Amino acid sequence: MTSDNQPPRAPVALVTGTSSGFGLLVALQLAAQGCRVIAGMRDLTRGAELLKQAEHMNMSGRIHPVIMDVTDEASVIKAVSEAEAAMGGIDILVNNAGFAVGGFTEEISMAEWRRQMDTNFFGVVAVSKAVIPGMRKRREGIIINVSSVSGLTGFPGYGPYAASKFAVEGFSESLRQELAGFGVKVVLVEPGSFRTPIWDKGIAGLQVREDSPYRRELEDVLRYSRRTAMTAPDPSRVAELIGRIVRMRSPKLRYPVGKGTRLLIIGRTLLPWKLLERIIARGLRTGK
Asked: Would you say residue 4 lies in a domain?
């Protein structure tokens, strides 16, 4: 609380996964809007690009990189506690940290399935749990969970990623209702394909074995993924959307963004599932 002769403190935003991709751009976007940004990342040595861009934009003083491994509860609690003590609370949380495991279910190890869920889903839960008490006590705040169009429709070859994002969707629906009475807003941002490193890494994980019974299907998925990555739009659109959401008084639950996302959502809602499956399969085969 500030006295009458003190200006109100700048909003404090915690963004996870800020070493690249959406997280880096969101951190810069929120800093440009006047927020003090706690930029979470597993390895501070990977924050050079973020700090370089922040310096170029004359915003270095607004971005504070911190070590945060969302799969390590102690790391999360430490980072959040120190940030709240230093800055007086966290007003905005953007759960962005994530990656994509590629492959067909039978050929993906259980260790990889668990690694996917630990980061993309349990990481979201852990960081949210750490931030919620402060927001609840102040009776204000916003939690933005970066989901995906894959959290609405599953695609072959990315089962673990789709499962993790479907989990984020259900969690966010429940959390939004739990916190509504305490003045805390929960929002889902659902990007389609954008030019970010997540898909480069996911594609790299799609190794086609000569003896795989799924070889032909995997090659279709790999070809489609590469083609989509090459034509994907600028990811700054997602950062700009999140920047607009944090300024809204009463945001909606879901914000799909990206080429073809609204069409896919309409198709999933209106078309019989068998027809939608055929459309997806045809899209994977296109361009052979």
From this structure: no
Residue 211 banded pLDDT, cuts 50, 70, 90: confident
Residue 161 annotated among the catalytic residues of the structure: yes
pLDDT digits (tens, 9 = 90+) for 248-269: 999 999 999 987 777 788 888 8
Q: How confident is the model at residue 6 (pLDDT cuts 50, 70, 90)?
A: low
260 φ, ψ (degrees, to nearest 5): 80, 0
Exposure b/e, 125-145, CB count within 10 A at least 16 = b? bbbbebbbebbbebeebbbbb
pLDDT band of 57, cuts 50, 70, 90: very high
Strand order in the sheet with 254-257: 63-67, 36-41, 12-15, 92-95, 141-146, 184-191, 254-257
Predicted local confidence at residue 261, as pLDDT? 79
Among candidate residues 161, 214, 224, 255, the one labeled active-site is: 161
CATH code of 120's domain: 3.40.50.720
Flag whether 7 is in a domain. Answer: no
pTM listed for this prediction: 0.90
